[in-house]
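Q: What structure does this chain adopt?
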Amino acid sequence: MTTQRQMQNKALGQKVQPIGLQVRRANALRRAQKLLPVIEEIRALGVTTTYAIAKELNRRKIPTPRGAEVWNKVQVARVLRWTAAGSSEAA
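A:
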């Protein structure tokens, strides 16, 4: 079933996405934005690689956006990508 918003997007030539996907993306962006100050603090200490940032987040026992206990460099890269995409969308 197509929602009214999806039909409007389609009429405007925009890609139609299920509402659930839009909600998950919005939630991911919110979680990433909450983590960004911590990552920036870590970067200010001279820790700049995604691997080293993940290691520091693990040392600080900060859970991942999904609540897991262990960070990896891919998760850090995603947070950085999401926050960069979110800030450019807001501009």
